[in-house]
Amino acid sequence: MSLSGRLICDCPSPGATRRLARQLGLLAMPGLVIALNGDLGSGKTAFVQGLAQGLAVPPDCYVTSPSFTLINEYPGRLPLCHADLYRLGEGADLEAIGLLERIEQQEALVAIEWAEAAAADLPPDHLAVHLEITGARRRRITLTAGGRRTENLLKDLAAAWRQDRISA
Ligand SMILES: Nc1ncnc2c1ncn2[C@@H]1O[C@H](COP(=O)(O)OP(=O)(O)OP(=O)(O)O)[C@@H](O)[C@H]1O
Ligand SMILES: [Mg+2]
Predict the structure, then answer these.
(1) Does residue 163 fall inside a structural domain?
(2) pLDDT tens digits along 64-80
(3) pLDDT per residue over 98-148, tens digit each?
(4) Is the pLDDT of residue 168 over 80?
(5) CA of 58: how far to CAs of 15, 49, 85, 114, 139, in Å?
(6) From the CA of 115, how far away is ligand 2's center (Å)?
């Protein structure tokens, strides 16, 4: 279902979550910032694995949670910059960890787990992705656009997701 600037997807399996994210990876433009939030184990890293597929990150670059390294980077159609702010907690300083620079360069797709820890540092036109655990294998994923660029992206993603539902 798509309201203006918002897409809510019911993902009944990890595969569905990855397919949704893969579509987003296929559509993503340089400089896109994706802010992922949701409880432990809700599927933030699984979502980034799908993004990597869509960006054609080589399969031998397996995407894992950058819990200790804070930032991992993978080559692809666009570089995928994957951060996890869990360890930094509230008031995380994106400049101090070099992530702000990466965002400002507008070259990579920057995906940030636990992004709410650095809410003040995020560019306004980012895509917010909220994952909720609605069953053992089910997640409700709400994607919200922060501006014009991400709103257009969401329209394309909504169309691709409808197609995926039809063919599933
Ligand atoms: N529909 C679903 N979508 C995504 N993951 C699912 C789904 N159903 C079950 N899972 C499982 O939930 C777990 C999600 O783990 P993942 O590491 O992606 O979560 P996370 O949000 O990154 O956790 P953390 O907060 O620890 O970083 C995986 O084991 C995955 O297989
Ligand atoms: Mg994770």
Answers:
(1) no
(2) 987 777 899 999 999 99
(3) 999 999 999 999 999 999 999 999 999 999 999 999 999 999 999 999 999
(4) no
(5) 18, 11, 25, 25, 27
(6) 11
| Ligand 1 nearest atom to the CA of residue 48, by list position | 18
Per-residue DSSP letter, 47: H
Ligand 1 test: best mutation among 137, 138, 141, 164, most atoms within 8 Å of CB?
Answer: 137
* Residues 52/44, Cβ–Cβ less than 8 Å: no
84 belongs to a structural domain:
yes
CATH number, domain containing residue 60: 3.40.50.300
Query: Is 134 a domain residue?
Result: yes
Determine the distance separating the centroid of ligand 1 and the alpha carbon of 42, expressed in angstroms. Answer: 5
Distance CA 125, CA 81 (A): 17
* Structural domain count of the chain: 1
Q: Which domain covers residue 68, as residue numbers?
A: 2-158
pTM: 0.96
Whether residue 167 lies inside any domain: the answer is no
